[in-house]
Amino acid sequence: xxxxxxxxxxxxxxxxxxxxxxxxxxxxxxxxxxxxxxxxxxxxxxxxxxxxxxxxxxxxxxxxxxxxxxxxxxxxxxxxxxxxxxxxxxxxxxxxxxxxxxxxxxxxxxxxxxxxxxxxxxxxxxxxxxxxxxxxxxxxxxxxxxxxxxxxxxxxxxxxxxxxxxxxxxxxxxxxxxxxxxxxxxxxxxxxxxxxxxxxxxxxxxxxxxxxxxxxxxxxxxxxxxxxxxxxxxxxxxxxxxxxxxxxxxxxxxxxxxxxxxxxxxxxxxxxxxxxxxxxxxxxxxxxx
Amino acid sequence: xxxxxxxxxxxxxxxxxxxxxxxxxxxxxxxxxxxxxxxxxxxxxxxxxxxxxxxxxxxxxxxxxxxxxxxxxxxxxxxxxxxxxxxxxxxxxxxxxxxxxxxxxxxxxxxxxxxxxxxxxxxxxxxxxxxxxxxxxxxxxxxxxxxxxxxxxxxxxxxxxxxxxxxxxxxxxxxxxxxxxxxxxxxxxxxxxxxxxxxxxxxxxxxxxxxxxxxxxxxxxxxxxxxxxxxxxxxxxxxxxxxxxxxxxxxxxxxxxxxxxxxxxxxxxxxxxxxxxxxxxxxxxxxxx
Amino acid sequence: xxxxxxxxxxxxxxxxxxxxxxxxxxxxxxxxxxxxxxxxxxxxxxxxxxxxxxxxxxxxxxxxxxxxxxxxxxxxxxxxxxxxxxxxxxxxxxxxxxxxxxxxxxxxxxxxxxxxxxxxxxxxxxxxxxxxxxxxxxxxxxxxxxxxxxxxxxxxxxxxxxxxxxxxxxxxxxxxxxxxxxxxxxxxxxxxxxxxxxxxxxxxxxxxxxxxxxxxxxxxxxxxxxxxxxxxxxxxxxxxxxxxxxxxxxxxxxxxxxxxxxxxxxxxxxxxxxxxxxxxxxxxxxxxx
Amino acid sequence: xxxxxxxxxxxxxxxxxxxxxxxxxxxxxxxxxxxxxxxxxxxxxxxxxxxxxxxxxxxxxxxxxxxxxxxxxxxxxxxxxxxxxxxxxxxxxxxxxxxxxxxxxxxxxxxxxxxxxxxxxxxxxxxxxxxxxxxxxxxxxxxxxxxxxxxxxxxxxxxxxxxxxxxxxxxxxxxxxxxxxxxxxxxxxxxxxxxxxxxxxxxxxxxxxxxxxxxxxxxxxxxxxxxxxxxxxxxxxxxxxxxxxxxxxxxxxxxxxxxxxxxxxxxxxxxxxxxxxxxxxxxxxxxxx
Lengths: 289, 289, 289, 289
Known about the structure:
The structure is a homotetramer.
Chain A: H1 4-16, H2 18-33, H3 40-63, H4 69-95, H5 97-100, H6 106-114, H7 117-134, H8 139-145, H9 161-172, H10 174-199, H11 210-221, H12 234-274, E1 278-279, E2 286-287
Antiparallel strand pairs in A: 1-2
Helix pairs in contact in A: 1-2, 2-4, 3-4, 4-7, 9-12, 10-11, 10-12
């Protein structure tokens, strides 16, 4: 390990040569961790990180199986190593944030990066390992927290245009989607209370209170239909038929909204491409398409 | 409490000063209950009413659980208080209706407001508490009626543009949606009668009559599939396979209609934005599209 | 009842006065049975026929319940009466077919009407009552045949624009929809044979042959999921997971096709409306929008 | 059978008359196996091959039933005969590949054809019969391989425009569809690990590890809902409610993407049709859009 003293002297050395070596090293690191076309080292780094994320994902699933202690200790070691790598990556990204936002000052750029959605996900995914070192926490809770790590896989898509389009569609249609969800929630509550009044007398176990009936309502409205709870009275079945039909509408409305959103997004992109002024090749006049 | 006499004198006082104070107070009340941008008091009133509605919603669900008497009495008190508040709000809205429709006479404006969809919902949501005071009714029926109160939550959306777009899409596509529902209903009846003829001999309990078979048909066509009733003969299974496939179409058709409706709504809004002035390429005059 | 002789003389009478009374009566009947705006008699006739169809529909369902003999005999009488009315309506429509297709000769117009989709449905819906009078048939078969009568309800929509749009969308997209169904059928067969090989050893009863496995495949692919048959091996569950995901695609593809079809239909209708040549109001030049 | 010697002499004969008879025969064969309008022989050949494929499909299903030995031997004979026919068809297609790609040399054309998607499917569908002749393989594995034969039915659509449009839509939207699948996969893993932590204590059999929980998650998210595994704790039910709702989104997003894709495809085709010559309003010259 590098001693703290040596590190200080290194830091000093770079500071002194701030104009050349420090800057060059920083920009090299930045190029490595940021995706840049035609740079094989950057691409290799990307593949390495993504592989690490997927392996982490697999270990989370494998952990739930009954495993011999030897395998379990290998998994624990692998987890620690990968969190250390992710921590270094996170720190490097914070360090080079001023190259990502060249128009901002160094401090502001770093703050902006730390507050970005992806950086928060990165932090949340490495935090669960460090938290028990600082605060003694119940292990059971920790296991749930560790799932935050899964969000790391979103990094794979950091670069894709497609996920961006999807996010934009959802953002633009948020008001409509939330409205439709509100209507559906209202529907579920009405159905639950009605069904509770209808069925609780005949099936007091299955429809014991409005929450249990809500379980039935959601199961029916989303067309999942586990079949653990269902009405047996005529009135109950009639209500269930209405709810099942409204469930079709429940799929249709958000689908319609999202579908229109994607059609709009495509048209917008096309229009932006087309919005160039053309000139008549014969007389040279401007032609607005 | 304000005595009836005092109230009369107050009324008289306002009537006398009809030109100034009464009108001013009325417009102040109107501004408070109607959403107006930049008015913090109006915003606070909105948030208060919405919070009250949500709390009422929660109590309806909580009521179905087994509760100690102390909690139950708190809920009853809370319900009475909130219905009084809702009643006052309703009366104030009726009172200020002539400011909402300034082009109408006072009486007509109030009548128009009372007959509006939202006012009817408001009235239905407060009525269940008052009804037993006037007519002695069975309590069981009342509990069902009380669900009308839930519709109050639609007020939250009274102001949203999104719900309006959704309502317009449904209104415009109503004929097509009803047509597709008609076809589906016909399909369900045909499937039910056919299935009754096929399965009733083998499973007389599950498929005892066409209504019970209809229960199966809806469960299959909406792809809920509880699994409480299903065919066991080869002919029955073949029919169920056809019905399940038509169920896919049943989702596809309304979704397609609604989806096209939303795309149309977006295009219409855009066109309205674009309706700019064009110029005739021949004489150079302005042309309104 | 009118005797055959009297009928002949009536017919002769009309033939003799072919130029006036016969024609006038025919056109009156045609106006009555065909929907014509502003004609109250025609509207009343429409409502009467539709009511009769719905009542017939209800009797079909009611028949499957256990009923006292008195009720059953009433139903049978009602059925006979309504079939007689439908038969008269059918004959009148054939008789007035030359007014429906004025450009054709009388014989050709009648043939064209008899071969039209709606006339075939009409005939099929009244035939089941007459068939046993001509050929002795098993009653069990007849009950199934009687469902053809339900198709009469499609008459309600004979006049709606909406059902026409839907039919056109389906017709235009038929090739794509059939193609997607073909892909799905292939998928089901592949899934069934694979699943039979995987699960039949462990669950020989549930997955006894490829047809039983197909029952599972359809139930999963259409997301119905009754829960009467499901894989229990790891390989079987993995296959079921893949099939369930493809089921999502199965909904998505026809929905996408139909949705695009409806959007296209709307655009086409709009374009047809817009396709008028406009003139510049200032200089009088033609302006193609 | 034709002896190898005779075949060689035939080949030589055709080579010698390369300019006339060999070429003519080849082009005749090519016309027969390739779909060409107005050629009844070619159409008959198509129908024959498609019938053979469908019959093969049926035998695969029939084979899984318990059959007498006589029927089984008929099926085996039929399979061998049809594979021989398919092999001849495959070889003829390879032989006439230079007529399919006239711009390429004979060798390159054949290689290009062999590597085409349809040719690979053809090869895979006939290979399973020949493999055990070369390498001794376990019969169990072979049965699974034989399903490759089913892909032959895709040939039916080789000629349809519709399947081509569908394939293009999927290809163009691949990035978005894969992205949405990635988000869904992440969702499933998160739901599985969370649910394992919530339910495994109460239902150790049903939720024994993350894979079993994943089985539940997929069943819920795709709205299949077999009902063999479902949560019974309050926390588990709440999670299941959230997952069921996200399941609606899971249908909505790919449907929206595909729907927008089909709308785009239609517009593109229309635009290509419309790409007519326009005239510059300033100088009157032709303008190609």
